[in-house]
Amino acid sequence: MKNITFFLILLITTTGTLAQDLVMTVSVPPGTTSCRFSGAFWGWDPNGGPVGTDNGNDTFTFTLSPAPGADMEYLFTINGSGVYENLIDNAQNAECTDRVNSGNLNTDYSSYANRIWKTTDALIWNEVYDSCQPATLSINDKNLIDFSLYPNPTQSQWVLKANQNLTEVQLFDVTGKSVLSQKLSGQDAIIEATELRTGIYFAKIKSSLGSTTYRLIKN
């Protein structure tokens, strides 16, 4: 009986702490053919980190599965150059103050300026190559208890169903620009996608209990 009780406790604990992915999308200069990032986890070898997936719209997406279990310091490289982006001048020009204050940039303002993703940050994380522009859509609320969005990918529309009354859905592109805002009532909604460009979007779904963000694909 003791062994069975221990197994049940272990199963419940494990189920409640399943690892989640970190999905990071970076906007890059037009014409960029490849993008990867590296950092302290990879000994600062610029050719040693993850390679991004080209979304075909001047953005690349990285999925770290599971999300890092410790704060991650990193920089991006593009086009196979093996040369890191340089954020030192941005820091010197006081463009990175918000990121420094939030702990998302480590810099001495003269010889290094490195990005940081913290374990307390959102699991959907946006960046802009060679810029200190704040990451957008850093939303990690878990208050929306249960919902579904389908089909995903879609060509025409997404169907949203939840187990509680919804109040609003906002759709953002990968640069953080709002492309749709729709007031809701009830537990079901249709999100139209026919006028959207092919690519990745993030839906911020709000209810009376809170909000959550979900990654969508228009094809």
From TrEMBL:
Keyword Hydrolase in annotation: no
Record's signal peptide: 1-19
Keyword GTP-binding: no
InterPro entries reported in the protein's UniProt record: Ig_E-set, Secre_tail
Domain Secretion system C-terminal sorting per the UniProt entry, residue ranges: 149-217
Keywords of the record: Signal
SUPFAM superfamilies found in the cross-reference section: E set domains
Protein name per the record: T9SS type A sorting domain-containing protein
Organism name: Geojedonia litorea
